[in-house]
């Protein structure tokens, strides 16, 4: 059977009709529309169909034949030449147990109980979309220029004002460096500090992505245990007194949710000032403290200029913005600006200007208040569903997650992977530990993505999976 051809010729184009016909048939063959063995119209029939001279089509067929794309035979007509079967290349999976496998597992979704992403039902999406569309139009009509590598001044002003009110940080807009989220801020800070080969304290357990970032910066990591008062300063001074860097989550420790006590904050700052060490403050979820007012930022107590404060809009607006910021100590302002200009530019101006207007008009603070009320209710509902099945000491509210502790030796990774098949994505606690000896097993259930409808059904499924894979909750 002759394969029909759908060729569109442009007689006003500079490209000759012969070349247009050749190119159209060749594209159909190479894309698989015309399969090997498919019969083509004779050049006389195709010429009549296209309304061109027969010699025009004949010349195109001759070029295709010379390129071994078609085979002409008096017995069987003109057919597509045999070709190797196209190999569909699949995206290679990361090596089992590698960082990228863990990264992809922790960031895929959207899914129930996923951590690190905000609830969508409370965000004023229509309002923000309108503000952002206006910013995009303004950017498109503006004169082309290279933007300020520190970030748009309007946004830096809004961030500085917000930090003064909400986090107790007294800083100027010139100290603010806008970044592409927390990870970009961490990378920028590590480049500025240039501490390759030095020791660094890292919370144990602590954010796996931070730990990998420090390793990539060629720092020697010293895991420091975390207790009810936060990172154990005494342990750090005993085991790694020569450290030049500390990375902490003092507002709500990631993942255990504890707040660094005032005594330890002051000791950490005194030690950093005396030893010349630097402190990177990951302000993880601090503005979303669900019980009472958030503790002031560690940077608000810093009088020696040793704290680099990193914040992000990923947990409050959306991780798709890839928008965050750094508060640079005065001593390092120029160095941060230089590195940002040459190696780490911020996101595009439209995203920044839209966020600035969102903050300036008061929408951001109102959004945070709504989030806190919604998350507090979600957390209580989730705990109420789980308490009948698990011992009270096995359930802990840890900031914007509920930690379900599992017996040592239970594979929390296997349970998390099993739950993914049912649209649930808790984070295994063991992934947050650097040492397998100190590692603990558990599941971190994100509150923000906890379902408001059919919560009981999701929790029943969770209990069934946990029971089937070796842990027996209360019946």
Q: In a few lines, what is going on in this structure?
A:
The chain is built from 15 helices and 14 strands.
Task: Explain the overall architecture.
- The mean pLDDT is 91.
- By secondary structure, this protein is an alpha/beta fold.
- The strands form three sheets. The protein has an eight-stranded mixed sheet with strand order 3-10-9-8-7-4-5-6, with helices on both faces. It has a four-stranded antiparallel sheet with strand order 11-12-14-13, with helices on one face. It has a two-stranded antiparallel sheet with strand order 1-2.
- The chain has helices spanning 17-30, 43-50, 54-66, 99-107, 125-141, 153-166, 182-193, 208-216, 233-239, 262-275, 333-343, 349-360, 363-386, 412-420, 455-468; strands at 70-73, 77-80, 176-179, 199-204, 220-227, 230-231, 245-248, 278-282, 307-312, 324-327, 395-397, 401-405, 427-428, 442-446.
- It is globular.
- A hairpin with a 3-residue loop joins strand 11 and strand 12 (401-405).
- The longest helix has 24 residues, at 363-386.
